[in-house]
Amino acid sequence: MTTQASKTQATHLAIGQITPVDLADPAVTKSVENTVAALSRPQLPAILTIRTAIQQFLAAELVASGFVHPPIYMLSGCTDPLNHQTFPARLNYYGSEVSVTQSLILQKILMVMLSPVERVFWASPNIRMEMGVTAKGYKYAAEFTQVDFEKKNATMAEMIGFIGGLIQRLHDHLNRHHADCLRKVRGSLLPTLTKPLASHDLVQVKSEHGLGSDDEAEHFLSSRAGGRPFMITNLKREAYDCLDQASGKFLNYDVVYPATGQNPHPVECLSGAERTRSLPDLQERMLELGYPMEYFAPFFAICEAHEQGTSDITCAGGGFGIERLTYALLGLEDIHQVYPFPRPTEGSIAI
Question: Residue 276 forms beta bridges with which residues?
Fold first, then answer.
């Protein structure tokens, strides 16, 4: 029989294996100071009220639209591939090495492909340690919450309309129920959105205006948006974003908020896509981008083993970054102002 003393000893030994932070380290000292300052901000209650309202509203809207929320999975045998460099976040999980979930895109696809569930969403924590983001630390957070949704047989056009409606109703909801918080932090109510979000083809915008990068295109469009959010489509990025052979365009979309308030930067707060249309196409795209296919073998093995398995992928969806959206709507100078316990993308964590 396990005694209370042995339980205490086991817990003590487990904690004792963790290397503590070095309080003599100047970076840790600075992190302690940043945490004290963050917890003391007078605007913090209003910021967190808006953040809470955003997540609650989006989740309620998705539930009302027939989406279901499975349990959250923070550890994965394989996780979102992400077509850019991130530090590997791996840990030992009961003797197996697993990944900390960067996002649940692969799980979303499996749910609507292989289960009877046709609409799924997660409001889940994500850990994504981006590389080389020092110049853009104002908008990156290594830990964030994403409201991530997917619908079977959905198309890009359907999702763009659905997402635009969500954002329109979100503005109305926040203006109606949280006007005091908006005025306290942002200085004004949110713009009323009466028309569909403007949509811009990224390749076309860059070509027509001689812009060399996606960031330049975002700033260009932001300066002409009249303070209203807009969509950018046809971005070359993830393997699971459909490349339509007929048009030669990627069937994906971002929602971008223009610079406002203390924030001089446009903010991408949702990304989504109609998915690559078959497993062979997805494998081909992964190989093209140089993904280590053995890492993603469990995803394809589940598809092959399932009795209802099919090589077709017919779904679309997207994901709102809740902290990004809060930061964008309130016009904050830095995304880390949303965090009571700072989580810098690169640096030390005190607690």
Answer: none
**Residues 317-343: tens digit of each pLDDT:** 999 999 999 999 999 999 999 999 987
Cβ contact 79:110 at 8 Å = no
Give residue for tokens 């030390």.
348
pLDDT of residue 13: 62
Whether 229 maps to a domain, the answer reads no
- The domain containing residue 125 runs over which residues? 35-194+278-284+292-338
Domain containing residue 141: CATH number: 3.30.930.10
For residue 155, tell me if it sits in a domain: yes
| H-only helix segments in the chain | 4-16, 26-39, 44-64, 105-114, 156-177, 179-185, 202-209, 214-223, 279-288, 297-305, 322-330
* 78: its two tokens: 């394989």
Q: Note whether residue 139 is domain-resident.
A: yes
How many domains does the chain contain in total?
1
Query: By percentage, how much of the chain surpasses pLDDT 70?
Result: 93
42 pLDDT exceeds 80? yes
- pTM of the complete model: 0.92
Question: What counts of helices (H) and strands (E) characterise the chain?
Answer: 11, 12
Between CA 166 and CA 168 the distance in angstroms is: 6
Identity at 143, one-letter amino acid code: E
Helices 297-305 and 279-288: crossing angle in degrees, nearest 10, is 170
Main-chain dihedrals φ then ψ at residue 233, nearest 5 degrees? -120, 170
Could you give the angle at the alpha carbon of 227 between the alpha carbons of 222 and 231, nearest 5°?
55
Residue where the block lists tokens 């296919």: 293
The mean pLDDT of 271-277, rounded to a whole number, is: 96
Confidence of residue 17 (pLDDT cuts 50, 70, 90): confident
Predicted pLDDT at 9: 52
- Angstrom CA distances, 315 to 101, 119, 307, 312, stand at 21, 10, 19, 10
